[in-house]
Amino acid sequence: MHSAQELVANVITLASLPTIYLRIRDELDAPTGSVAGVAHAISADPAIASSLLRLANSAFYGYGGKIDTISRAVTVLGIQQVHDLVLAISVSGAFSLFAPRHLDMPRFWRGSVMRGLAAREIGRNQGMIGVERLFVIGMLSDIGHLVMYQTVPELADEARTVAAATREPLHEAERRIVGCDHAEVAAALMAHWRLPTSFVDIVGAQTTPRLGGDYVYEAAMVHVAARIAEADQENESSTAAAERIDPVIWTLLEMEPASLRRIRESAELDLAGYTALFFPNLGNERARA
């Protein structure tokens, strides 16, 4: 049996966040941190700077190509949102060379984007402020599976196969077969990377939101978002997906199960566009496959 910390220890040298992200985080944490300092740090990495400008000028952010410098991007989007977007770009880059057995990477990343979009849509539905952070948290919430399929691929695949055949919740099958589940692994990796506490706690509690502490509400949103993404990939009906969610979750969120369909449809509208923005090479990889 394996612990989450053990699995993370086996990949930290392979999946390290780039220095540019660490510099941005240090700039944000410093008492003297500034927009200029963050912009300077981002500009030092042309690839990340280019990705950030592409995102900022996309139709989804509504600035119509008017953001032509990193300084303006930081000023317009805000330091926190820039941090979160650079984090998402950095994490996808850190895992870009991973090719785990039993895992279709284009499918995985599309599913991750769907998680983020669904989490954001739930936040909007609830009138939350700062829902863009929910998008990034949702998008990164399944990275535990990347670690598991890279370190214990046979056990991870066995857990998924058993769960699919028996309808046992995947995280329960993983705990029984692997020794830990994907949420624990993702939280352990995020803690090692020293990501914000909210990321660690929300992602760690996504399978059991009541354990989310101060972030139980957000963990419940990511929980529902994960079910929506799974339903989308498995061609499961929204009604069936909603029925598999514990009624306690719906009560906690003060949502009706019937709302899942509308949330899913809204997220699906943006799926192709956001996937192309964050992972422009996925289409090529699919074609080669």
TrEMBL record:
InterPro entries: HDOD, RNase_Y/CdgJ. Transmembrane segments: none annotated. Residues 14-209 form the HDOD domain. Pfam families: HDOD. It comes from the Bacteria. This is HD-like signal output (HDOD) domain, no enzymatic activity. It comes from Aromatoleum tolulyticum.
